[in-house]
Each structure stands twice: as structure tokens, then as C-alpha cells.
Design a protein that fits this description.
With about 100 residues, the protein is mainly α. It has one domain (about 10-95). The protein contains four helices and no strands. The protein has helices spanning about 1-5, 10-35, 40-60, 70-95. The longest helix has 30 residues, at about 70-95. The radius of gyration is 16 Å and the shape is elongated. The relative contact order is 0.15.
Length: about 100
């Protein structure tokens, strides 16, 4: 990625910042869903995007770790990628069904 090179920051630092930011975004989305201010469709969309970005962030952080820790981080990133695919498919299903399930109550 060109941004860390231009700014002179390591990939792992960028990964930690992006990961923390997306954890906050996911936490706020879940809180809003539980409190009734966000629809299920919107939550699936945010979980889809957030999971992909968290997986990317973890892969950036895994460059600084070696051994078993690196393998664990990469497995977690792969799992988050799969969660993102699942949430994206569920979002698409809800969106194309045309039911009232996606409406905020």
C-alpha cells in the first residue's frame, strides 16, 4: 500500500489503527441495532465491510509477529474474511427479498 510509504509509518501501525477504527464502527452498529435505530439490513452491510477491513488490518499486523502468533492471526483474518462473505450474502438476500424485515421498527 502506498499510503504508509508516503507517510512514513509502518504497515503494522496502520493495521492497528484501521483495526481499532473498524472495531468501534462495528460496536456502534451493533449498539444501534440493539437499541432499534438501525435495520438488520444495515447491520449486515456494516458487518460485511468491517469484517473485510479487520481481516486486512490483521494481515498487516501479522507481519510484525512470527511463529505461532503469526499463524493464529492469519487464521483469524481468514475467518473474518469468511464472516464478511457470509454477512454480504445475507445482506444481499434481505435486500433482494423485498420483505419488511429490513425496515427499522
Amino acid at each position: 500500500m502506498a499510503l504508509p510509504a508516503v507517510l512514513g509509518i509502518p504497515d503494522s501501525t496502520l493495521g492497528m489503527v484501521l483495526g481499532a477504527a473498524w472495531l468501534v464502527v462495528l460496536g456502534v452498529a451493533v449498539y444501534q441495532y440493539v437499541s432499534g435505530n438501525r435495520s438488520r439490513e444495515q447491520v449486515y452491510m456494516v458487518v460485511c465491510m468491517g469484517s473485510f477491513w479487520l481481516a486486512y488490518s490483521l494481515l498487516q499486523v501479522s507481519n510484525t509477529v512470527s511463529g505461532t502468533g503469526e499463524i493464529g492471526i492469519v487464521i483469524l483474518a481468514a475467518g473474518l474474511f469468511l464472516v464478511g462473505i457470509g454477512a454480504g450474502l445475507r445482506w444481499r438476500e434481505i435486500r433482494s427479498s423485498g420483505t419488511e424485515e429490513s425496515a427499522v421498527t
